[in-house]
Amino acid sequence: MSPPANASVNQKILQYEGFINEVLMRDLGRVLEQRDTVYEKIAEYLQLKNTIQSLQVHKENAMKYGKREQRASQVLSPADDMGPHVRRNSDSRLLKTDVDLGCHFYIQAEVEDSSRVFVAVGYGFFVEMTHTEALRFIDKKTSQLTAFTEQLTKDSAKIKANIRMVLEGLRELQGLTDLPDATRREVF
C-alpha cells in the first residue's frame, strides 16, 4: 500500500512544481515586465517634462536678453527699420537642436516654433499642446502611471506569496523540515 501512496504523492509534487513553473512564474514575469514598461513610459514623460521646462527657461532668457538688446539698439540706432528686425530676433522662437535618429546617430535640426509640442497621449495618438498644457498633462499622466505601477507591484507581491505558499505545500508533501534561518553575525 505504500508504493501507490508514494506514487500519488510524487504525482502531486509534479503537479505543484508544474503549476509553479508554468503558471505562477510566467504570471510573475509578465507582471514585472509590464511594470518595467510602465516605468519606461514614466521616464519618457519625465524627460519630456525636463525638456519643456528647459524650453521655458530658454524662452524667458531670450525675452529678457531680447528686451535688453532692443533697448540697446534703440539707444544706438533709433532708425525705424532696425526696430522690427531686433524685435523679431528677440521674440524668435527658433530652436536649434540635435535629434537622435536611433542608435545614438544625431542630426542637427531647427524648430521654427517651439512654443507648442506634440505629446503622445496613448494608442498612437499625439496632441499638440502649449508648454503649460503639456506640463499639466504630464503631471496627471505620471501620477496615473505611478498608481498603476503600485498596483502591479502589489500584484507581483501576491504572486510571490502564492509561489511561497505552494513551495510550503511541496515541502510538507515531501516531509522536509523547515530550513534554518541564515545565521546573522552581530556587528557589535
UniProtKB/TrEMBL annotation:
One Pfam family linked to the record: Prefoldin
GO cellular component, one term: mediator complex
One annotated GO biological process: positive regulation of transcription by RNA polymerase II
CDD domains documented for this protein: Prefoldin_UXT
MF GO annotations: transcription corepressor activity
UniProt xrefs under InterPro entries: Prefoldin, Prefoldin_subunit_alpha, UXT
Gene: uxt
Protein family membership: Belongs to the UXT family.
Name the record gives this protein: Protein UXT isoform X3
